[in-house]
Specification:
37% helix; 5-stranded mixed beta sheet; TIM Barrel; alpha/beta; globular; 10 strands; single chain; disordered C terminus
């Protein structure tokens, strides 16, 4: 059976939330596709925040490189992040209860970075709503001395869920150290989803070096600071506008 190299969790410069965080480290989808081609990937998914990636030009470009793009989105559900694949009417999902209705043979639902120390990670909600998920993510962001993925592996083993490796790329330095090898009958969306659901995926991963962690943190840190500054500037401009409007009405 053919084995395909895949990364199913990638953000790019068309992600509205990425744009909000500023220009530092933003990666064009074309750049990611070129990099994936160099590294021998056959499957990618651009999982932008609350926004299904659906650009036919990019899909065709990936196809020209022999890469299958699976439509995906990282959706905010009850303030938690969930990865959805091949679900067109995803905007109707507003709770974990409603998420259950969209788990079928044609879709794939994955728990991303569930036990990392941020508020958007599922943590206990993964166990509470484990029946909503087909797979659990093994994320790239860890070292030899710190690895929140260990609990994700334990949970996936206990509940017999597939574990898949992915990068959660926000800057290019994150891409390439963690991925999945998926055994599927063919390179098509239905075949890949069927393979993952049935546990035919192997995680390939290596811990990040201190230098690489530092580089990634510096890029993401600059973007976070940029978002704070621009956000405050926006609020200040809105306040000034309100004051000027009030004066003109007197």
């Amino acid at each position: 059976m053919p084995r395909f190299k895949a990364d199913l969790h990638i953000h790019n410069a068309s992600d509205p939330r990425e744009i909000e965080y500023g220009p530092f480290g933003l990666v064009s989808p074309y750049t990611i596709i070129d990099k994936a081609f160099e590294k021998g990937y056959e499957i990618l998914s651009f999982t932008n925040h609350n926004n299904l990636h659906s650009d036919s030009n990019i899909t065709n470009y990936a196809h020209s490189k022999g890469i299958l793009l699976i439509p995906g989105v990282e959706l905010n559900i009850e303030k938690k992040h969930v990865l959805l694949y091949n679900i067109k009417d995803y905007m109707e999902i507003d709770s974990f209860e409603s998420l259950r209705n969209y788990r079928d043979e044609s879709s794939l639902i994955v728990a991303p970075h569930p036990f990392y120390p941020t508020g958007s990670c599922l943590r206990d909600a993964l166990i509470e709503y484990i029946d909503c998920f087909d797979a659990v993510e093994y994320s790239h962001f860890y070292t030899r001395f710190w690895n929140p993925n260990k609990k994700a592996v334990c949970i996936s083993d206990h509940f017999k869920k597939t574990i898949i490796g992915s990068s959660d790329t926000h800057c290019i330095a994150q891409f390439g150290s963690t991925y999945s090898l998926i055994d599927a009958t063919e390179l098509s969306i239905p075949a890949i989803i069927h393979a993952v659901k049935n546990g035919n995926a192997e995680v390939v991963s290596e811990p990040l070096s201190v230098l690489r962690i530092a580089w990634i943190m510096s890029v993401l840190g600059m973007r976070f600071v940029h978002s704070l500054v621009t956000g405050r500037r926006f609020i200040r401009n809105q306040n000034d506008h309100t004051k000027n409007t009030s004066k003109s009405l007197r």
